[in-house]
Design a protein that fits this description.
six-stranded mixed sheet, Deoxyribonuclease I, Chain A, alpha+beta
């Protein structure tokens, strides 16, 4: 039996700045999860990450330069990581052979403003074109999509934040086009395939909120994060691991890692999915 564990984690600006230096805590969460492939967003520029990748046994390491860009780390056998442009933060693709089949894993970080559905769609269509052209049997697309799922509103306070930041209300039909594109392309939302609970992943920093007029204007303050003084509770699901149908058939688990260490590490909770095959 072959097993593959895929982790996606937006670590917030290389694990620095907001809420202090969080690199060691982030590394601890990654180490405890022990992924075979790590898709990281907003991380990789600091030499710390190259050192940690070597320590954790990742054979392949690549990051696109820039504090909001993705990084990808892999422990699997023969493979290759490529950086591809999408007009935004770019995305990374790792291609290899796993369980006798061709596998492509894509790490993405789409544009962040809630009202920028058209921008995210443009970025994502570049990735979808590359996926179609590669023609791999098994495909995963993981990362921060900055997009809700249709029918999953999120907590009222987080929607109010997004509305205030954009200057216009975020309606029920807004902020989910990128996820819709993935579903229309036949991809499976691995978390929702395994879990019925909300699965919220984004939770702003308490420090940021305390110093932001946008956040101070909220009609109702958000709850504090579980066991965490530096962050408030997660309120919307915008991080995903998608799999094409052939890969989704091998899915055995997908979960949000919501430990106290994970809450303290970043403003996004990481995701981990496990795929198994008997071949």
């Amino acid at each position: 039996m072959s097993e593959l564990k895929l982790m996606s984690f937006n670590i917030l600006r290389d694990g620095q700045y907001e809420a202090g230096d969080r690199k060691e805590r982030i590394a601890s969460v990654i180490r405890d999860t022990a992924p075979d492939v790590l898709c990281m967003q907003e991380g990789g520029d600091d030499p710390f990450w190259a050192e940690r990748a070597a320590t954790e046994g990742f054979n392949y390491v690549e990051n696109l330069p820039g504090q909001y860009c993705p990084s990808l780390y892999a422990k699997l056998g023969e493979g290759r990581i490529e950086g591809l442009a999408d007009g935004g933060n770019g995305f990374l693709r790792f291609r290899t052979t796993w369980a006798g089949r061709t596998l492509g894993i894509y790490c993405v970080h789409l544009y962040h403003e809630a009202h920028a559905d058209a921008t995210r769609a443009k970025e994502l269509n570049v990735a979808l074109s590359a996926i179609a052209e590669a023609g791999d049997e098994l495909v995963c697309v993981a990362g921060d999509f900055n997009s809700r799922t249709r029918g999953e509103r999120g907590e009222d306070w987080i929607v109010e934040i997004a509305s205030c930041e954009g200057g216009i209300p975020v309606g029920e039909d807004d902020w989910h086009r990128a996820v819709g594109l993935m579903v229309d392309a036949g991809f499976v939302d691995t978390y929702r395939a395994q879990q019925d609970d909300p699965g919220y992943t984004y939770h702003p920093s308490a420090e940021y909120m305390a110093n932001s007029p946008v956040f101070q204007a909220l009609t109702e303050p958000p709850p504090k994060g579980e066991g965490a003084e530096s962050w408030v509770s997660a309120g919307v699901r915008i991080d995903y691991i998608f799999a094409n149908p052939a890969m989704a058939d091998l899915l055995t688990e997908c979960r949000v890692i919501d430990t106290e260490d994970a809450y303290l590490a970043s403003d996004h909770l990481p995701l981990a999915a496990i795929f198994k095959t008997g071949h």
